[in-house]
Amino acid sequence: MPRINRPPVPHTIDGEDRSLGGSALYVDLIPSTCWGSAARTVHATQYEWQRIRRMVYERAGFTGQRLWRYMRADLPVRGLPHLAHVRVQPDPGEKDARRLEARQDDRLVAEAVVGLPVQGTGVLWWIGVEPSARGRGLGRAMLGSALDVLAGLGAAAAILYVDDDAPPGDERDRRAANALYDSAGFIEVDRLNSYTLSRPA
Ligand SMILES: CC(C)(COP(=O)(O)OP(=O)(O)OC[C@H]1O[C@@H](n2cnc3c(N)ncnc32)[C@H](O)[C@@H]1OP(=O)(O)O)[C@@H](O)C(=O)NCCC(=O)NCCS
């Protein structure tokens, strides 16, 4: 990769760049980095794209922040337990979603929300276990049941996002969720990164 002369860039990027080539700025920057050199082709795997994107932004003066995980698994995922009793119903807040609930003694102890498959890919939007019921296998069983619901709706793959940018001990501490997804066989496909360029004073 040739040395990058700082390209002309706007002072702020609004929104989030969560896909390859999803940002017009990104698309503009890559040719800029090759301009004037012999290189006219960039070959990169998806993970290399992440590094290139970060390098380009950071050399342009942006500060990068690593945010959410984007994960994927082919369905069916084998070896997961399932809840014996789970209620599946339309999600009150989202018409293209289903809500799963597990109750013990009429108390809600575990829940999940899945998004209906689009072109064979369903989304696990949320999974949660009531704090006093955690660590006893309910989360893993709810994950197994939620993925089964998605497969039953026609999904051949499931994706999910983990908003794990909060520190340990925070309300959004996602260490348990990450361990659960990793051990269940989900693969990290990409990271959502945020890049900020401070305006000169
Ligand atoms: C993530 C969550 C659903 C797991 O539920 P749970 O019932 O405690 O999970 P389980 O008892 O089934 O454990 C499943 C796996 O999670 C991981 N895990 C659970 N508790 C953990 C902890 N305190 N620290 C690290 N990993 C943990 C382990 O990998 C565990 O597998 P193992 O028992 O074979 O080691 C639960 O912690 C939760 O509701 N967290 C808050 C909401 C949340 O983060 N949702 C995900 C949003 S992306």
Order of helices and strands: HHEEEEEHEHE
Distance linking N and C termini: 32 Å
Arrangement of strands in the largest sheet = 2-3-4-5-6-1-7
CATH architectural label of the largest domain: 3-Layer(aba) Sandwich
Whole-number total of structural domains: 2
Number of strands: 7
Task: Supply the CATH class of the largest domain.
Answer: Alpha Beta
The percentage of residues in β strands lies in: 25-35%
Bound molecules: coenzyme A
Task: Name the quaternary structure.
Answer: single chain
Largest sheet: 7 strands, mixed
Instruction: Count every helix, treating DSSP H or I runs of 4 or more residues as helices.
Output: 4
- Gyration radius (Cα, Å) is 21 Å
| Helical residues, percent | 10-25%
Low-confidence runs (pLDDT<50, min 5 residues)?
Answer: 1-35
User: How would you state the average pLDDT, rounded?
Assistant: 82
The coarse silhouette is: globular
Write the SSE topology.
Blueprint: H1 24-34, H2 46-59, E1 63-74, E2 87-91, E3 94-104, E4 107-118, E5 121-129, H3 138-152, E6 157-162, H4 175-184, E7 187-196
Parallel strand pairs: 5-6
Antiparallel strand pairs: 1-6, 1-7, 2-3, 3-4, 4-5
This protein binds coenzyme A.
Supply the key terms.
single chain; 201 residues; alpha+beta; Aminopeptidase; 2 domains; 7-stranded mixed β-sheet; 4 helices; 25% helix; disordered N terminus; binds coenzyme A
How would you describe what is shown here?
This protein has 201 residues and is α+β, with helices and mostly antiparallel strands. The chain folds into two domains: 1-61, no CATH class; 71-191, Gcn5-related N-acetyltransferase (GNAT) (Aminopeptidase, 3-Layer(aba) Sandwich), CATH 3.40.630. 25% of the residues lie in helices and 32% in strands. The protein has helices at residues 24-34, 46-59, 138-152, 175-184; strands spanning 63-74, 87-91, 94-104, 107-118, 121-129, 157-162, 187-196. Strands 2-3-4-5-6-1-7 form a seven-stranded mixed β-sheet. A hairpin with a 2-residue loop joins strand 2 (87-91) and strand 3 (94-104). The longest helix is centred in the last third of the chain and has 15 residues, at 138-152. The radius of gyration is 21 Å and the shape is globular. The two termini are 32 Å apart. The relative contact order is 0.20. Mean pLDDT is 82; it is low at 1-35. Coenzyme A (COA) binds at residues 127-129, 134-140, 162, 174-177, 179-180, 183.
